[in-house]
Amino acid sequence: MFFAILVACLVPSMALSQQNGAAFPPTPQGQPDILLAGSDNRSFNLAFRDRLSAAFSRSIRIGPYTPDASRRLPDTLVVALGSAAVNEVMQQEPRPPLLALMVSNHQVEQYAGLGGAPFSALFHNPPLKRQALLGQQVLPHAATVSVLARPGEEHSYHELADELDAYGLELRVFTVKSSANLVATLNRALSFGDFLLGTPDPEIYNRQTIKHILLTTYRHNRILIGPERAFVQAGALASTFTPTEIIIENAASIIEQYLKQGDLPQTGYPEQFSVAFNQQVARSLNIPLPDRDVIVENLRALDAQKTGVGND
């Protein structure tokens, strides 16, 4: 039964080690073209660096980030993996040019409108509009969508609600006032929505809460879309996601552009994506899943119909 799916390893730690530079071997001779601020996972850092190097169209030297190394090379782009690495680089004075990877839009929204050196980010979490439209693809007759939000965060979904209205979806936000209030609020939300739209809010969706959210959702014969692919492994029905190789290819292109022109694009989501399903959950709830490739094609066509209203 999908009720027994383990949730302990939903989101891998991206905490930055105290000795960031020690996570990489020495840079080949010559001044590095970019600096890489890694996570505390040495194996991941090395694999990412090697795959990034292979994605470049020309030879680009990657050096390990340390505050001292960055101060000696103030115009050198720093590529940071994860929110902890981003936060450390952001604390550096003066701040270097920065490309943030493996982060969500919520994790970097505090840096919106930041002045100074160029800053950009590729978000790894799926855009909520696309996730809601995925739910509509899975449940073609769906007309209502529920979202859980913390107090004070309700306004951040107003523009998304306006945008989804153009697709025949009514979105309603339900406020989770405290952790003790989660299940009661979720019961109200599921009584309204044809499905629950997961959001990248770690206060609501985390290792401690996800089992309660999933069990309550199943009891209402409803589904959870998202918040991201890791939750599909735990029991959410579906999520869109961007494969790591696409993120690396996008990052390589952005880095080459910076080295050539000295600027970075606006923060945003990679355009290419795929869809992950939990087949066991679909069978248990008697939900026939559409063809994956057809869904991706449909979502791309819908995404092309941008309304210009926020939270894309």
Explain this structure.
- The protein has 312 residues and is an alpha/beta fold.
- It contains 12 helices and 11 strands.
- A 5-stranded parallel beta sheet has the order 2-1-3-4-5, with helices on both faces. Strands 7-6-8-9 form a 4-stranded parallel beta sheet, with helices on both faces. A two-stranded antiparallel sheet has the order 10-11.
- It is elongated, with a radius of gyration of 21 Å.
- 37% of the residues are buried.
- Residues 1-23 have low confidence and may be disordered.
- Residues 1-22 form the signal peptide.
- This is ABC transporter substrate-binding protein.
- Keywords: Signal.
- It comes from Marinobacter nanhaiticus D15-8W.
Topology:
Elements (H helix, E strand, L loop, with lengths): L33 E4 L4 H14 L6 E3 L2 H6 L4 E5 L1 H8 L7 E6 L1 H4 L10 E5 L4 H11 L5 E6 L8 H8 L4 E6 L6 H11 L2 E3 L12 H10 L4 E2 L3 H6 L3 E4 L2 H18 L12 E4 L1 H6 L7 H12 L9
Parallel strand pairs: 1-2, 1-3, 3-4, 4-5, 6-7, 6-8, 8-9
Antiparallel strand pairs: 10-11
